[in-house]
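Side project, low priority. Logging it here so it doesn't get lost.
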Amino acid sequence: MTTHQAPRPALHAVRPVAPDALAAVRILDDAGRPCRPYEDPEGGAPLRCCLRRSRPGERIALVSYAPLRRWAAETGADPGAYDEQGPVFVHAADCAGPDGTAGPGHPFAEPGALRTVRRYDAGGRILGGRALVLGEEPDADLEEALAEAFAEPGAALVHVRATEFGCFLFEVRRPY
């Protein structure tokens, strides 16, 4: 019998989309398209700016984002062909970023969710990845997958993605 426990705090520091990248994609996204905000009628969209789900009536936008390209520009890496972009939801205007209202643990960690944990080296090349189905203790599952990813000495960066759509959810950098 499994006992359901309260989520534990994440040991690895989860990073939302950086404020400067948000400012840019709210004008022109990483695919070169203008931002088209809309009012979210139902809520529930995974917001990468504040790492929580949207609420009904919030103004959000679905934009193209290239997380590895942004990281590479910051670090001087050259991901070459591994550079990719995909859809992410963000608030249509500035927000305060993560404020703790999403709760403890990892963002978007729900039992049954399908996740891909992909690790990259300091040059931006993919070292490998792992697909997982989050179980009854999704934070523990993600923490184990992150620990496994960073057990590889060359891993500098990990992206967690929603497997069904390939969407980037959040980034974790090697803890020092």
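Brief comment: The helical segments are 19-25, 67-75, 138-151.
Revisit when time allows.
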